[in-house]
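This section describes the prediction task in plain terms. A model, or a person checking by hand, is given the sequence of a single protein chain and must write out its three-dimensional structure as a string of tokens. No templates, partner chains or ligands are provided. The sample shown here is typical of the held-out split.
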Amino acid sequence: MDKRTDPVEIIARVGGLTPCSDHERALGTWVYLASKAGWQVAEADGFTASPGRGEIGAVDIEGIRYAIRLGPRVRRLLYEVVDGHMAKRDILATAAWAEPLVTKHSAQGWHTAESGRPD
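The expected answer:
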């Protein structure tokens, strides 16, 4: 079995409480982390990102294509003053992560992105 961290488990913490506006930096950070984990990563050709759906790009990793998404994904501890006292609470901060694009070649027998139904 492959000992590398699976690409879907790689999370790039790329921002704080507000949405990250530098999509190129977020994508580059995720690609760097995946490469560091030992994967051969190439930016995908012919993919149109949809920032409204949280997509900032796509990559091909050793025969499988992944959409790179950006949004609130990782926990952070926020310290704030409430009623004159320091308080802390957990919040979600911005991160980039990968989701596989399921096709008949990458996941035989599962729903395909092209048809929406099983092969």
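For orientation: The radius of gyration is 17 Å.
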